[in-house]
Amino acid sequence: MTEHPILITGGTGKVGGRAVSQLRAKGAPARVGSRSSNPRFDWTDQSTWDAALEGVKKVFVVPHDGELLTRPFVQRAKELGVERVVLLSGRGADVPGYASEDSIAGKTHIDGEDAVRNCGLEWTIVRPAWFAQNFSEGFFRDAVMAGELRLPAGDGAASFVDAEDIAAVAVAALTEDKHVGKTYELSGPSALTIGEALALISEATGRTVRYVPLSPEDFVAELIAEGWPKADAEDYADSVGPIRRDMDSHLSDGVEAALGRPARPFAQFVSDAAAAGAWRD
Asked: Which residues are CB-neighbours of 272 under 8 A, at least 6 positions away?
C-alpha cells in the first residue's frame, strides 16, 4: 500500500498495539513507537522523535497525558515531511462540564485537537467512549480479579467501545482518503451500567464480581489510603464523573460511519476476552 512506514505512537498499548496488528495484516509497514522499540520513541524525550519520524508520511498519535506534547510533536512531524495525522482523542473533549478544568486528560485532548486541526496537514480525529478493555487489560482488571469494583460511578451507564473497533477506525483513517477532515465519535451499540457490565463478566467467567458505588470523596480517600498521590486520585475520580452524571450513556455512530458495519457489542467483547483467558488467575 505504501513504502513509507506508518508511525503508531503508543504502539504497544491497548489501541496502538491493535492498530499495529491491523495495519500489518493489511500489508502496511507499521512502525511501533514506544520506549522499547527500535528506533526508540519516548514522548518525554524529544531527542527520540526525529528517528521515529524518519521516512514517515502518516502518524497515529496516541497522546501522552500529563504534558501538552501533541502540538510540538505534530509541528515537528510536519517539518520532517509527515502528510497525515490521525489523533486518538476522547469523548467529551468539546463538551463543557464533561471534565473538570484541572483534568490532565481533558487538557491534553483539547489542546491536541486544536493542534491537529490547525497544523496544515491531512487530519482525522477519533473520539472513543470508555474502552471495553478497561475491564480486561486496564484500570479495572485488578478489581475484577479481586471480585469487587469500587467506583464513584453511581448508577450511570456508559456505551463502552471495543478497542478493536477504535483501532479499526484509526487504520481506516490512515489508509483511506475519505476520512480526511472528519471527527469520529465512537461508542458501542448499547449503554451498560457498571453493575450490568460486571454481571456479563461474572456470567462468562463463573467469577462473582460485584460493583460497589462510592461517593467521589470516599473514593479519593480510599485511593489516598492505598498510597495514591491526592492529585492522581482526584483525577481518577474526575474521569469517572461523567458516567455518574449520565454524560456517557449516549450512543455514537462513528464506528459504522467509518467502517460501514456496526460496533461490536460489549457482550461479544466479554465472550472473546473470557475465551482468551483475560480473567484467569
From this structure: none
